[in-house]
Amino acid sequence: MAAPKFDKADLERRMKGAVESLKGDLSGLRTGRANTALLDPITVEVYGSHMPLNACATVAAPEPRMLTVTVWDKSTVTPVEKAIRSAGLGLNPIVDGQTIRLPIPDLTEERRKELAKLASKYAESARIAIRNVRRDGMEALKADEGKKLISEDDRKRSETEVQKLTDEQIKAADEAAAAKEKEILGK
């Protein structure tokens, strides 16, 4: 007899992973001070694949309002600059040889609203990831029921548990995003 496909512990791990990923992305949204985590979500297309920025350059914060990105390979300076520019972080890269300087602008009201919008976008991505995990769980339950590994009552009971877990994790994602938006907007 085949083993059931449904694994509640795995679903919970994957959902919590989505929330942790969101928290990591939100930590990169700084409120006016240079922080190397600001560039963590950026991926660069180099050597024919997408890589995290820190896999092809060194990121440092030499001053409170300045980040520097030292690119290891001269040929990747332009793709790194484009990736930073298109990341939607409102940073204006200044190329100086293999070093890219990123002055951190003062947070105007408009900039605060942009960052709050970006936090909302990150939160929506996390909610989608959590819902995708829920869908995987529900499909696994239906497959197990179809193979007669579990009864209809067991499937319904487990679906209720999966939905409860989904609601908890979406609530955690929403709370993390709301706290970050509050911090950004200074309320």
TrEMBL record:
The family database entries (Gene3D superfamilies) matched by this protein are listed as: 3.30.1360.40, Ribosome-recycling factor
Whether Cytoplasm counts among this entry's keywords is yes
Source superkingdom: Bacteria
InterPro entries, per the entry:
Ribosome_recyc_fac, Ribosome_recyc_fac_dom, RRF_sf
Keywords (alphabetical) are:
Cytoplasm, Protein biosynthesis
Subcellular location per the Swiss-Prot or TrEMBL entry:
Cytoplasm
One Pfam family per UniProt: RRF
Please state every residue range assigned to the domain named Ribosome recycling factor: 22-185
Primary residence: cytoplasm
PANTHER family recorded for this chain?
MITOCHONDRIAL RIBOSOME RECYCLING FACTOR PSEUDO 1, RIBOSOME RECYCLING FACTOR
Q: Which HAMAP family match?
A: RRF
* Membership in a protein family: Belongs to the RRF family.
Question: What does the protein in this record do?
Answer: Responsible for the release of ribosomes from messenger RNA at the termination of protein biosynthesis. May increase the efficiency of translation by recycling ribosomes from one round of translation to another.
The name on file for this protein is: Ribosome-recycling factor
Specify the species. Novosphingobium ovatum
